[in-house]
Amino acid sequence: MGEQTFNITDENIEQHIITLFEKLECMRKDANSDGLSGKVPARLEVRTLSLWKAVVAECAASFLYVFIVCGAAGGAGVGASASAVLLATALASGCAIATITLCFAHISGAHVNPAVSAALCVRRRVSPLRAALYVAAQCGGAIAGAAAIYG
Predict the structure, then answer these.
(1) Long-range CB contacts (within 8 A, 24+) of 99-103
(2) What's the rounded mean pLDDT across residues 74-88?
(3) How many domains does the chain have?
(4) What domain range is 53 assigned to?
(5) Does residue 21 lie within any of the structural domains?
(6) Where residue 142 sits, what CATH number does that domain have?
(7) Buried b / exposed e along 55-92 (16+ C-beta atoms within 10 A)
(8) Can you state the angle between helices 128-150 and 114-122, rounded to 10 degrees?
(9) pTM
(10) Three-state SS for 107?
């Protein structure tokens, strides 16, 4: 492969370098900006469709996770050894969380666990309103998943 050469005159090189550094500084500031700065206030966020899509996605993800893992633990067999039940539960848990993350990460972040939502709220990655709704949806989805297995 041959070398590529650029036709930049010596008198403009400083200007190009300064422009490049200014753009890099702006990108760095955008990446390091505070999690909640520039976000929508809670009274306006409640009205957005993306919030409610995310809440429903968290509820569905928690439902599926509890349903799959509890179903694997209960369906391992009546005469199964403890190690077989543990293996089935561990494999179901790993595969379920990987699949749920791939399916729901672009909608809500696929927190699935209320502790994760609370931690992200403390770290200011999600708003307190969103975190509270996520926790409520996750608890409701988990209860519904357990009820579906029980029923």
Answers:
(1) 100/61, 100/64, 100/65, 103/61
(2) 80
(3) 1
(4) 42-150
(5) no
(6) 1.20.1080.10
(7) bebbbbbbbbbbbbbbbbbeebeeeeeeeebeebbeeb
(8) 170
(9) 0.71
(10) helix
